[in-house]
Amino acid sequence: MSNAYMTKGRLEAFSDGVIAIIITIMVLEIHVPEGHDLPDIVTVLPTLFGYLLSFVFVGIYWNNHHHMLQAVHKVNGRILWANLHLLFWLSLVPFATSWMGHSGLHGGPIAFYGLVLLMSGFAYWLLAKSLVARHGNDSVLAKAIGNAAKEYTSLGAYSLGIVCAFFQPVVSLVLYVSVAIMWLVPDRRIERTLEELSK
Fold first, then answer.
1. What does residue 75 show for φ and ψ, rounded to 5 degrees?
2. Taking the CB of the first residue and of the last residue of the chain, which one, N or C, has fewer CB atoms within 10 A?
3. Which pLDDT tens digit goes with each residue over 165-190?
4. Per-residue pLDDT for 119 more than 60?
5. Could you tell me if residue 74 is left (phi over 0), alpha (psi between -120 and 50 degrees) or otherwise beta?
6. Cα 85–86–90 angle (5° rounding)?
C-alpha cells in the first residue's frame, strides 16, 4: 500500500475541509461582551488577539500546504499519515487559543499554545520530508525547500517561547508573533522553483 501510486486530490480536499472547520470553531469560541457600550469590548480583547494570531497561523499553514502540494504529483500511505499528523495538531489550535484567551498572561496556557505551534511546525516539516522521500532529492520540492533554515528557526523560536512562558509570558507572545510575521509573506521558494523550471 505504501508504494502504491495515489493522486493528491483527496488529500488536498480533505485538508482544506478540516482547516475550514478549524477556523469556524475558532470563530464560534468568540463571545460578545457582557455590556452594550463600545468600551466593553476591552473585556474580549485577549480573545480577539488570540483569534487573530491563530487565524494567521492557520492561514499560513493552509497557504504553504497548498504551495507545497503544487510541487508534487503523487502521495502514498506515509504521506497520508504525515498529513493527518499535521491536521491533528492544527485541530488543537481552537482549544489552545480559547484557553490562552480566557486565562490572561498565565504561563501554562501560553506554554501549551506554544507546544501546539511547535508540534504543528514539526508535523509540517515531517510532511515535507515525506513528500521529498516520495519524489526524490532531485524533485522540485526538494530543490525549493533547500536547507529549511526558516523552518528550523521557527521551531527554535517556539521552543524558546514555551520555556519563557513560565517566566516572561509576554516574551513568549512576542516570539510567537515574530514567527507569524516571518511566515506572513507567502513562502516564494516553491513558486520561484516552479517558475524557473517552466522557462
1. -130, 170
2. C
3. 999 999 999 999 999 998 886 556 66
4. yes
5. beta
6. 120
- Please say whether the beta carbons of 109 and 103 come within 8 A: yes
Residues 60 and 49: their CA atoms lie apart, in Å, by: 17
Q: Is 6 helix (H, G, I), strand (E, B) or coil?
A: strand
Cell 487559543: give the residue.
Answer: 97
| Lowest mean per-residue pLDDT among 56-60, 107-111, 115-119, 131-135 | 131-135
Contact 58, 93 (CB under 8 A): yes
**Contact status, residue 96 vs residue 116, Cβ threshold 8 Å:** yes
Counting beta carbons within 10 angstroms of the beta carbon of residue 25, is it exposed (0 to 12), middle (13 to 18) or buried (19 or more)?
Answer: middle
Backbone angles phi, psi at 31, to 5 degrees: -105, 145
Whole-angstrom Cα distance, residue 171 to residue 164? 7
d(CA 135, CA 73): 8
User: Are 189 and 168 in contact, with CB atoms under 8 Å apart?
Assistant: no
The rounded distance, in Å, linking the Cα atoms of 43 and 33 is 7
Residue 74, SS3 per DSSP: coil
